Amino acid sequence: MTQLLPRSTPERQSVPSAAISRLIGALDRIPHIHTLTVVRHGHVIAESTWAPYQRDLPTAMYSVSKSFTSIAVGLAVHEGRLGIDDRVIDLIPALAPERPSAHFANLRVRHLLTMTTGHEAEPSFDDRDWARSALSAELRYEPGTHWMYNTPATHLLSQILQTVTGERLLDYLKPRLFDPLGFRAPVWQQSPTGVDAGGFGLSIRPEELAVFGQLLLQRGLWEGRQLVPAEWIDAATSRQVANDPGNGDWNQGYGFQFWRCRHGAYRGDGAFGQYVVVIPEFDAVVAITGGLPDMQAPLDAIWDELLPAFGTQEQPADLVATTPIRAVDGERRDSEVAHDYDGPLRRLRVSDGLLEIDGSALPCTPGSWSTATFPPDPGADRFWYGDRVAVSGGWIDETFRADVRLLGDAATFHLELAASGHLRITRDVGFDGTQVWEGDPLDQPAVVAHHIAVSP
Q: Total structural domains in the chain?
């Protein structure tokens, strides 16, 4: 595993190891945490992984991507490519509506950065041109007067950057940010028109997320080079506007694609548990990845267990081990069952120690995790192609149950196959909540005699 930051013990960086153990324990009680990285004084003092997840695999950042887009805007401003008070209509005139409203004519880069565009509801992405559909949505309010979380607004920043620099966002950041920081092959999802999503879609490794936080903490300075202007980071991570009233860390104000937190901290965060939390007062960074629905709980764990311990002394303690995510129990059978479906998968085959989905064979045994990769299939719009996964499963009475965990993403898919061939697939996290697909096989059941396998 590549190490981008030096390692140290908690005590050497004035943090009691007992407090780190309490933080790990608190996160252990929150379902679906995947990784934790704690940095103090520029040194990694804790790195935990909840098996079967892996620290050296890239993982989807979701809206943490927005914070990287903000840094790209700051670099482009520094290079004179654009200004934050430039009008959007002047930067991407080819995509502007034919008859722009007065509100649209006053829409500026600053409003995209602070999510004060004037939209009443978040515009939806169409299947063709995300930027054009965002620009065509009505602006009910005067830009700058109404805050609303707005992912299409961030995509417009990516569109502007690609227009003014001639490079996609990923390529623009590569020599300026990713390469100097040591990132290994980051990827960014693109729109149908070939523009990086901006507001989501970036995949990087957990330690790279922590490195990004350390760069922010150092106000853009990295190994003697000022990669990002300090004044941009100061502005981007400061409270620029008030955001929606709410509880905890969701009403502390919003910067340029960064959230303010309690305790003088700030963060980039992404759906389902991706965080980079920067705590300037204590020279610390906490990076977390996960697949959870409750976004406040990990932040509470940081404030309750870690924050009070900075600079205090306790007896050294061994760091607690994380509890591996439980694999699916059941029996392993030497029977074979195969069915065809018209749904998220086309063909499912279960045999002794093997789960085959659309021709991709995955080792699958009860009580343990096996890892494999679905081969990419650009022609198929399905969730698993090209993903590294962990799989476990077995028979419980006459039902086969398996979990398919996307190791580079937040979601887990729970499969239940009944003796009748009825298949139920549950996705545990998603923007529409838990998603369920159920269907019966298209073909007649193809079942080979049931026998319980005898293990050697």
A: 1
